[in-house]
Write the structure tokens for this entry.
Amino acid sequence: MDGIGVISKKDTYILKGKTLLDKYIDYKIKDNECVIVKTGSLIPNSIKYIIPSEAYFQNKNLFHIFKYDFKNSFIRKKGHVFKSGQKFILKNKNLTKKELFIYNSFKNIKVKTKNSLSFKIISTGNEFTKNHFINPTNASYLENYLNSHNQKIDKNIHIKDDQKILEKELKIVNLI
């Protein structure tokens, strides 16, 4: 939500600075000060309310609140769109600074991490043997996809169409 972030309810605020999308700045603002807040920006923990741009007008360095009783829905408490008990699904193991600050803004948050799954890819087909020079593109695609989602590939082998060889490989990986 675009607007100004404040720590208390006043009629006029002095501009202290602005929040950024990719950098956390912990503004220490006073009761009569505000920071400009953009949608998705990293909001300092001291900010208690965000007043939307429709509820104020700016004159140089001053922000004046108009037609605003501080009891309606135009002001909201600071927070993110996460609900209590919601699970976080991370695309990678390493959190970005923005993700860390978002998680840090919650109180009493409990974070559980899950280990990557382990995969063994076995491609079968006579076309994958040395004599045919055909690459197993499905297996390569699958391996790249799993790697891009931080999953572990223990084995990626290509064998010819032979029931005994396949059974041997499945026994090695404890699938039969």
Remarks:
- The longest strand covers residues 152-159.
